Each structure stands twice: as C-alpha cells, then as structure tokens.
Amino acid sequence: MRRVLTSEIICPSRHKWLHDKRADEADNLTRYVYNLSTTSSTVSSSATVDVRHVARHYCGNVIRRLVFNKRYFGEPQPDGGPGPLEVQHMDAVFTSLGLLYAFCVSDYLPWLLVKEANETVNKLHDAIIDERWRQWKSSERNQDHQMEDFLDVLISLKDAEGNPLLSIEEVKAQSQDITFAAVDNPSNAVEWALAEMVVNSPDEVMGRAVAEIDAVVGQARLVQESDIPKLNYVKACIREAFRLHPVAPFNVPHVALADTTVAGYHVPKGSHVILSRTGLGRNPRVWDDPLRFNPDRHIPPVNNPNNGTNSNNDVALTENELRFISFSTGRRGCIAASLGTAMSVMLFARLLQGFTWTKPEGVDAVDLSESKHDTFMAKPLVLRAQPRLPKHLYPTISN
Ligand code: HEM
C-alpha cells in the first residue's frame, strides 16, 4: 500500500495537479481569519482569534479538498469557517489520533470515545465514498474525464491485469489514513511556533519572519507555494517548533525485521523500537540551550550542506539525521514531505503575512505549558490579530 500511495497518490505529478485546490484553501484561511479579526465584539479595533481552531480547520479543509474535492460536508459557511459537520470531523479525527500515539490505550482514552470518534469520521467519509464508488461502477464517471481528487485516483487504480486494484473497504481505509496523517503535525507546529514567537522576543523572531516574507513576497500580493524555497527563516521557525514541540512524545512503534546496530546499540530482530521525540529534540548533547526557541540554529553557515539544508542551502523541514523527528526517515518515514511542507509553510506564512499577532488585551502572559495528556499546548492559543495588508488583498469571495 505504501508503494501504491507513493507512486500514485502522494507523488510529484499529483502534487502539481492539486496545487490550485491547496491555493484556494490558503486564500480561504486568509479570508476566514480576516473575517474573525474584523468582527470585533469588544471596543478594541481587532478581535481575538483562536489559532488552534483556524489552524486545524485549514488542515481539515486542505485534506478534504484533496481527498474528496470538498471543503464542506454540509452547508458552505459565508465567513469561510467550518460548519457543524466540519467541526465534528476535525474533533473526531483529533480524538482518534490520541489513540494512535497512546502507549496503552486504556491509560489515555476511554475506548468508547475513540469508537464513537471513528464512527463519526467513517459516517462522514462513507457517504461520499459510497456515492463516488457507485458513479465509477455505473460509468457515470470515467478515467478520461472528471478525475478530480485522490478518491477518484484510488477508485480507478488498476492492477497489472486491468482489474480494480482496491476494494471499497481499502479505498475507505486509505482515505481515512490520509486524512489522519495530514492534520495534526502542521496545525500543532504552527500553533506552537506562533505562541513561542509572541512570548519570546516577538520583535526579534516574529519581526524577522515577517520581514523575510515582506522581502520575498512584498505587500502587494499574498504568499504562494512558489515562494516557499525562499522563506528560509519561516521554515527554520517551523523546524524549531517540530524540534521543541513534537506532536507526540514518541513515534509509533516499529518492529526490527532483522538484527541491527544503531548508534552503537545492538537491536535484536523482533524488538519493538520506540523513539522519544522529545528526547531527541531536547537532547542537550545535540542542542545548545535545548529548551530555548531559537530558529537560528537551523540556519547553518553557508557551505554547510548538512542538517536541514539542501544543496542550495535552502532550509528544509525534513530531518534525515533524526536529530529530531519531523517527517522521520527510512522505510517507515513520512511519504508526504512535500505536501506536509506546503501545508505547514502556507499556513504559517499566510498567518504572519496577513496579520500582526499580539497578546489579547488584559492578558498578562501567554501560557506556554504543555497539556498533561499529550504534547499540544495545554490551552488553545488565542491571540489578537490585526490585518496588516491593504484591504483589497484579503479574499472576500468563497471559492
Ligand atoms: C508537516 C506534516 C507532516 C509531518 C511532520 C509528518 C510526519 C510523519 C512521520 C514522523 C511519520 C512516520 C511515523 C512512524 O514513525 O511510523 C509519518 C508517516 C506517514 N505520513 Fe506523514 N507527516 C506529515 C504530513 C503528512 C501528510 C499531509 C500525509 C498524507 C497526505 C502524510 C502521510 C503519511 C503516511 C501515509 C505515513 C505512513 C507511512 C508508512 O507507515 O509507511 N503525512 N508522517
């Protein structure tokens, strides 16, 4: 299945093919945050915005557009925000993800809650998949026309004999896996990065990121994916969030298929291998002052081709040396580094370019504590957002 996904779904040609849907969702994000920030319920000129809410729903929108060609399961919302079904979808996805990273399920989550969450996700997905399956089987849709999204690709895949490659159950399982895999990492990293920036020397760190966007993109158009290669400091901030605030304390367990030696340790065949993400990312033998949010550590001197830069010295979000875990590496590493990078950078860069983020009035300090149950922020990040671009640049019409 991994081979099928990498060759047919999460491959460079499909990434390009689906660019415009991702661009629509970046515009929708800007529009939604603009609407939230200008519908002020207080005397102040700008309202507060729940960053977690907008980040998670941006990720949900992107993945629904790519998989099902839909932002909304239900009625479109005039402000670009989620409706009740989209809220249900993301809440259920995040509840199910809690199970994925739990060591021992019963320690963390009531089983019934997870079962219900899975049923919610399946109910929302199945209605679309069943109908689409019917359309393909009745030739209402066919290969030559109307290939719109990952779902069309999954349903129409053929084996070497020209027979359908996947059953409907397999299509459903893949759609669910892709959805689960796409949402938590970008939203968590961006929420933490923005929180760290607002708390720690905002003028310096946030100021530099915004200045980079202004220098690369200017203030006469919105950031696009084509700008990503040049937004090195912005990417360094996201890398720093992955390092310091991974989405989960451990990676999912893997089993060693053969005897091996890693970093001088003998790992016998059959061992369950669990990497500590926080242990790697906060290791003082690798990272100076490891608890400090310092994106500069990812901007190496020119001519250092290692660690976080590619041959052009661009900063990348991948970390193949495993000094921390972003996309991991090797045969079970993430298959979607390009999509994950595009989602994370566009989310972060659009928030930074479009708005000035500050503590809400009357709040002394932004609380940077971690949740007791996972590595998310204990409380959703709520900040004051002030539009900073000319008004006509904020998209107003839903696409
Ligand atoms: C910033 C975004 C993302 C990050 C940081 C990330 C990170 C990871 C990591 C660390 C793993 C390995 C887990 C393990 O140890 O087994 C993984 C696996 C995976 N990711 Fe991602 N991911 C991201 C986005 C995505 C997206 C957008 C998709 C798909 C649309 C995706 C699909 C997958 C799949 C299918 C696997 C399982 C690969 C396998 O088991 O062979 N990821 N991801």
From TrEMBL:
GO molecular function: heme binding; iron ion binding; monooxygenase activity; oxidoreductase activity, acting on paired donors, with incorporation or reduction of molecular oxygen
Coiled coil: none
Protein name: Tyrosine N-monooxygenase
Positions that bind heme: C334
Cofactor field: heme
Organism, scientific name: Eleusine coracana subsp. coracana
Keyword Cytoplasm: no
Pfam families, sorted: p450
